[in-house]
Amino acid sequence: MHIHRFKLLVTGLFMVGLLSNTISLAQPKSVEIRVDLSKTKEPLKPIWGWFGYDEPNYTYMKDGKKLLSEIANLSQVPVYVRAHSLLVTGDGKAALKWGSTNAYTEDKNGNPVYDWTIVDKIFDTYIERGMKPIAQIGFMPEAMSTKPEPYKHNWSPGNQYNDIYTGWAYPPKDYKKWSELVYQWVKHSVARYGQKEVESWYWELWNEPNIGYWKGTVDEYIKLYDYTADAVKRALPTAKMGGPEVTGPGSESSARFFRAFMDHIASGTNAATGKKGAPIDFITFHAKGSPKLVNGVVQMNMGTQFRDIDKGFEIVASYPTLKNLPIIIGESDPEGCAACSEDLHPQNAYRNGTMYSSYTAAAFARKYDLAKSRGVNLLGAVTWAFEFEDQPWFRGFRDLATNGVDKPVLNVFRMFGMMQGNRVEVNTDLAYDFTKIKNESVRGERDINALAAKDSKSATVMVWNYHDDNVVVPASPVDVKLKGIPAQRVFVQHYRIDQQFSNSYEVWKKMGSPKSPTAEQISELEKAGQLQLLTSPMWINVKNGEVDMPFLLPGQGVSLVKLSW
Question: How many angstroms separate the CA atoms of 501 and 520, rounded?
Answer without folding.
Answer: 19
